[in-house]
Amino acid sequence: MILYDLLLDILKYTVAGISIVYIAFYLFKPYLDKSNNLQFLDLKKAINGQTLPLRLQAYERLVLFTDRINPSNLLIRLNGNGYTAAELYSLIVADIRNEYQHNVTQQIYVSDRAWMVTKRVKEDTLSLVNNAVKALPETATGLDLGKFILNHLSRLEENPYDIATNLIRKDLEDLF
């Protein structure tokens, strides 16, 4: 009987102790959750403080990339008057690929939508140049290639490079 009373007392104290710990845990849980949330927000704020300038710079570089591969700017920069169409084609393709490789790491800091717009404008530009050089005769000059490309762009209702730049800017505005 003494052993039975002792076990019953131990059981009562154990249940009471567990109940007190359970109640205390649920009384302090909101405080612990709030503390964890505040720490998480502080960490997120610190990370944003460090990455925001990088993200802004990445968007800036994508806009610059789009502007640099715009044929109207690209042809002026490469000054292809003294080249054959094939030579100018090679210079254009190499320049676009170099610009792209120079900016490929920016995809880490921008949205998927902004990066897809950038890739699309690059691919469309390469396609435009490929189609232009194929449409010209073998004896065509770099000036002929430049005229053909610019003539094609002038026939479009909207400038695809302006559209791409606006989409990238809109994506940046969505950050704020």
The helix content, as a percent range, equals over 70%
Please, how many helices? 6
Rg from Cα: 32 Å
The first-to-last residue Cα distance is 74 Å
Quick one: overall form?
A: rod-shaped
Instruction: Give me the strand/helix succession.
Output: HHHHHH
Sheet of most strands? none
Number of strands: 0
**From the helix content, strand content and strand pairing, which structural class follows?**
mainly alpha
- Portion in beta strands: under 5%
Low-confidence stretches: none
- Average pLDDT: 88
General description of the model:
The protein is mainly α. The chain has a domain of 123 residues. The chain is 84% helix and 0% strand. The chain has six helices and no strands. Helix 1 runs parallel beside helix 4 and helix 4 packs antiparallel against helix 6. The longest helix has 67 residues. The chain is rod-shaped, with a radius of gyration of 32 Å. The N and C termini lie far apart (74 Å).
Keywords summarizing the entry:
176 residues, mainly alpha, 6 helices, 0% strand
Q: Can you give me a brief rundown of this structure?
A:
The protein is mostly helical. It has helices at about 1-70, 70-80, 85-105, 110-135, 140-155, 160-175.
Mind sketching the topology for me?
Blueprint: H1 2-68, H2 71-78, H3 85-103, H4 112-135, H5 142-155, H6 160-175
